[in-house]
Amino acid sequence: MKQNVSCRKKKDKARTMKIKYFLIIIISLFSSCKGQNRTVPVWAKFFDKKEYNFFIDIIEEYFKQKNFEISINDGVVIVENGDFGLNNLGLVNLAQICKQENRNVWKEIVSDHFNRMIEANEFQTDFNKKIKDFEQIQKYIGVRLYHKEYIEAVGKENTVYKELTDEIVELLVFDLPHTVTSIKPENVTAWNRQTKELFDIGFKNIKSNYPLEISQQDMKDYKIWLIQSDNVFASNILLDKKDLKKYIGKHGALIGVPHRHAVIIYPIENLEVAKAINSLIPIIKGMNNEGPGSISDRLYWYKDNQLINLPYNFLDNKLQFYPPDNFVSMLNELKKED
Predict the structure, then answer these.
(1) How far from the centroid of its chain's Cα atoms is residue 324's Cα?
(2) How far is CA 72 from CA 57, 86, 309, in A?
(3) Residue in 260, 253, 208, 256 with CA at minimum distance from that of residue 234
(4) Residue 223 shares a structural domain with residue 314
(5) Which stretch of DSSP H or E encloses residue 53?
(6) Is 90 exceeded by the pLDDT of residue 275?
(7) What is the mean pLDDT of residues 308-312?
(8) Are 192 and 158 in contact (CB under 8 A)?
(9) Are 219 and 104 found together in one domain?
(10) Which pLDDT does position 228 carry in this prediction?
């Protein structure tokens, strides 16, 4: 009888262990599939569904560990409780950075990104105490190029900017150790300084602090100048009229400003420019889509210190090019010289 009771206990224990094991498997499967039903939104179209869900899971886990409640709407993290420093945090650039790296480092990239934002907020708190003292803060003044959508997002009334083209703006910013933030009109008023002087100071500060990596790249049928930088100011080469002349041809240059880390320049000397147009457009468009810090997918003609848009379109995967009359006239001149 005792033996039967002992056997029954062993069977019950084994059955209990099986149930526990089964539950662990179910929980594990549920955890590994969390969020997998999310659809990929337009702002994250460079992700496939699995990548997008993996990325969002990491974001949610980061804020959960910090005890912050969040919601994610149209590429923006909204922090709904506590004081993170900023309550609306853009995800597009961070997502583009992750996309270009192996997924096993995405968690580290996300943590570093938001940890820097926390550090930046702490620095900003101290910085704001001396923000009206021009002598103390002028070394932090800079300029940076953005797509005009950035200005529209933060509000024109909160920025000081100049239009470089109809879609690219030159923005007056604070270049701080952990972040780049917009300088507000009230800051300029408090300093009692002319806007032109501030843009000049900002340009000189950035040029002095961030040397550019400039190289000539062989594209088989032609060569280009590639201006690169690990920081966010590579596109500032377009503001440096003196240095820019070194890379401009007899008839100007084709220029692409796909994102904050790169500028492509093709000096126009002869009819080889036709080959450059056909291959540079998809390159610029692809780099702009990848980012991070996307600026423009346009192809520009740099002529007489101006950036002139060279419109194009893709129809049935075929490039349609619509150059302005003055560009067509230049091409006709090249035919006569050829």
Answers:
(1) 30
(2) 11, 14, 35
(3) 260
(4) yes
(5) helix 49-65
(6) yes
(7) 97
(8) no
(9) no
(10) 96
